[in-house]
Fold:
Amino acid sequence: MAASDRTGVLQTLPIAAGAIAGTALMVNRFFTPSLTSSQSRSDVVGVIVSAVLILIGLLWQQIQPRPPEAVELIGEDGFELDETLPERAKTELAWASHLLLTNTVTQSIVVWHGDRILLRRGILGTSETVTPGPIVTRVMKKQTPVYLVQLSLYPGRIEFDYLPENTQGLICQPIGDRGVMILGANVPRSYTKQDENWITGIADKLANTLSLNDR
Structure:
């Protein structure tokens, strides 16, 4: 059983227990012709306990919502690398993309730098070209990454047509002032602050390597 399924079962246990206990008390009361004062007090306590269990279950679901479900991204798995790059740059791009794909929720990576795509890896989108839209342009200009936690909610997602169409979350990370690294995830709200810091460090390393090629 998946972790999210186990969490859902645990969250419904208090509600189920409270409902069963309350129903049992009602049935017992209905089939009991006469009640003593002690039985009446016990029934009152039972009703209160059942109500508290149901309330705890409802509050638990609000405090601990079920984690978002992962989806299978639409597209083919691939690895495309600009063969005109120096060996050092190709090695570093391959290393960085492998780390991100295997250690984060990232499922698709596009590295665009110097007006061309240097790398596409993971689940590939249908478009093989990158036309910088408002989000990518702003990221390069301000040198600040943008994290779209649930891509389907943002109208600006149309500029990322080079990612799988059902990409759930996205990070657009600057690589110096001439490029970006776009990471697509198959789960919304899935990148942690530690992931973001790590991605920034990798992007800075790539920016340094690629700047050497521009000299």
In short: DSSP finds five helices and six strands in the chain. The chain has a mean pLDDT of 83. The chain has two domains: 3-63, 76-213. Residues 3-30 form the longest helix (28 residues).
